[in-house]
Structure formats: structure tokens, C-alpha cells
């Protein structure tokens, strides 16, 4: 009988195998799954997790503060690095550096490592991280690319995922009375989301040519994602005296798939984004499952 780790690994391999065998013939499948995860699955999981906990007071605020301060710190460091080094595709690197795949990948990983207890902080990271990603992240990346504040503001309005997270935030904040039947439905959808998200990660692996040009960018993003990002979580968690475990794990996830979508949508170098995201995701998945068994 296989355990959770083995099941998640097999789901990832199944998604990756289907991607390799089918190529672009099943282009509609990852799009369909992503729509479900973004607009139904992950919101259901976040609402279920946050409302099932009775810690929506000080602890919620502290975890949110650590998350927000960490992400803003990485954004600031990315902007500073871009100004000092004047690297090409700085707007794409900013997105890859600052925003991890905390929803599709981070939530299942935190579930494996911490169980239900870790899902609370993990969900807070997803909630606030996504809000910043689809608002300030989109605005900043477009502004770096075009130097146009109006274009940046217009870009924020064209991401419905942002409004979805606003609704989740309002529900979590005001803790309204929800019928038990709806709560049970959210719990079922949340459990299904964790399983489907891992399959989706494997199915979404994609390399765009030319792959040989991305090694420098890979090292750059890896340094931000696996070193600087968790260090900022540790620093702010220490200052605010909060347990950083699940927040550290979330901060170390590979770049969010949504950043590649943003790059493609706004005419940025999405090929580089796809190459770096896919490479780091594969490295992370192999390393994670090896680490679990060592």
C-alpha cells in the first residue's frame, strides 16, 4: 500500500509522462485543469483551511505580515539588482524571483511535511502571495518593461485571479456563517485540489527554445528562490516571534507557473520564464522526493 509521498510522486510522473507522450495534442487539458484550480480548487482549499482554524486573530496577522514583508523584500532586491546590473529581461526575473508556486505545489508539499497543522500558515502564504503577485507583481514587471505606470495599472485589472483572491481574503477576514453542507463541499474540493495540483505540475512542464541560453538565469533565480527568499522569512519570523516552518517551505517553492503566463500575455520573454521554471521545478521535485527517503 503506497503512502502520501509515493502517491504524489506517481501523480507528478503521470502528469509529466502524459505531457511527453501527448505533446501539444492535449493543449486543452492543462488549461482546463488550471481554470478549475485557480477559480474553484485553490479558493475552496484556502477557505476551508482558514475557516476551520480558530486562529484568525493575532496569529493570522503575524503570518500575513511575515509573508508580505518577505515578498516585498525579494521584490526590492530584484529591482535593485536590475538597476545595478542592468540585466536584460529584468521584468521576468523579478516575477520568477519573488513569486513561488505556493498554491499548486507548495500546498501539497506542506501537507506532506506538516499535515493539517501546516496547511494554515501555508494557506496564508498562498492568499497574500497571490494577491501581491497579480497586483503589485504585474504592475512592477510591466513598469520595468515599458516604463509606463498606466500600462502597469491596466495590467492589474486584466487578471481575474486577483479578484478571486480578494473574495477569499474577505471571507477569511469576516468569517461569515457558512452552511455545514457548503463547508463539507469545500473540504472535499480542497482534498481533490491537493491531488490534482501535483498532476498538473507534471503536466505543465514545458521547455521553450533556445534552452542553452538560460543557465545564467537559472543560477540567478535559484539563488533567490532557495536562499534569499527563505532567509527573509526566517528574519521576519524571528522579529515577530512566529513559527516559520510552513512559511519557509512555501518561500522555497519553484517559480509560479503564473509568472510564465504573465510574461507571455504582456510580450515579455516567456521562453526564458518557461525554461527556468520547468528546470527548477524538476530539480525541486527530484530533490524533494530523494530528501524524504534519505
What's this, in brief?
The chain is an all-alpha fold and 294 residues long.
What is the CA-based Rg, rounded? 18 Å
- Please outline the major beta sheet: none
Beta strand count: 0
What percent of residues are in strands? Answer: under 5%
Average pLDDT:
82
Number of helices: 13
What does this entry look like structurally?
The structure is a single chain. With 294 residues, this protein is mostly helical. The chain has one domain: Na+/H+ antiporter like fold. 82% of the residues lie in helices and 0% in strands. The protein has 13 helices and no strands. It has helices at 4-22, 28-52, 58-85, 90-98, 102-114, 116-146, 149-157, 160-174, 180-204, 215-240, 245-251, 257-265, 270-293. α2 packs parallel to α8, α2 crosses α9 and α6 (116-146) runs parallel beside α11 (245-251). The longest helix is centred in the middle third of the chain and has 31 residues, at 116-146. The chain is globular. The relative contact order is 0.18. The model has no long low-confidence stretch (mean pLDDT 82).
Write the layout of secondary structure elements.
Blueprint lengths: L3 H19 L5 H25 L5 H28 L4 H9 L3 H13 L1 H31 L2 H9 L2 H15 L5 H25 L10 H26 L4 H7 L5 H9 L4 H24 L1
Amino acid at each position: 500500500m503506497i503512502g502520501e509521498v509515493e502517491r504524489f510522486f506517481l501523480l507528478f510522473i503521470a502528469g509529466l509522462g502524459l505531457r511527453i507522450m501527448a505533446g501539444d495534442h492535449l493543449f486543452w487539458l492543462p488549461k482546463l485543469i488550471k481554470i478549475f484550480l485557480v477559480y474553484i480548487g485553490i479558493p475552496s482549499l484556502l477557505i476551508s483551511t482558514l475557516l476551520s482554524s480558530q486562529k484568525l486573530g493575532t496569529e493570522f496577522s503575524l503570518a500575513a505580515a511575515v509573508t508580505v514583508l518577505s515578498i516585498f523584500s525579494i521584490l526590492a532586491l530584484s529591482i535593485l539588482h536590475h538597476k545595478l546590473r542592468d540585466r536584460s529581461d529584468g521584468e521576468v526575473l523579478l516575477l520568477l524571483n519573488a513569486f513561488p508556486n505556493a498554491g499548486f505545489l507548495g500546498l501539497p508539499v506542506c501537507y506532506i511535511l506538516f499535515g493539517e497543522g501546516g496547511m494554515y500558515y501555508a494557506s496564508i502564504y498562498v492568499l497574500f502571495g497571490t494577491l501581491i503577485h497579480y497586483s503589485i507583481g504585474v504592475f512592477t514587471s510591466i513598469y520595468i518593461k515599458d516604463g509606463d505606470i498606466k500600462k502597469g495599472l491596466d495590467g492589474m485589472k486584466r487578471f481575474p485571479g486577483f479578484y478571486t483572491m480578494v473574495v477569499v481574503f474577505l471571507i477569511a477576514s469576516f468569517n461569515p456563517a457558512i452552511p455545514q453542507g457548503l463547508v463539507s463541499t469545500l473540504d472535499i474540493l480542497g482534498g481533490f485540489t491537493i491531488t490534482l495540483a501535483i498532476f498538473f505540475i507534471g503536466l505543465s512542464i514545458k521547455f521553450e527554445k533556445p534552452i542553452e541560453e538560460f543557465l545564467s538565469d537559472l543560477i540567478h533565480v535559484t539563488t533567490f528562490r532557495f536562499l534569499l527568499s527563505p532567509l527573509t522569512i526566517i528574519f521576519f519570523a524571528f522579529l515577530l516571534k512566529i513559527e516559520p516552518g510552513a512559511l519557509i517551505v512555501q518561500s522555497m517553492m519553484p517559480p509560479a507557473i503564473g509568472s510564465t503566463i504573465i510574461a507571455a500575455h504582456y510580450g515579455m520573454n516567456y521562453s526564458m520564464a518557461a525554461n527556468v521554471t520547468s528546470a527548477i521545478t524538476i530539480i525541486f521535485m527530484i530533490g524533494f522526493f530523494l530528501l524524504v527517503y534519505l
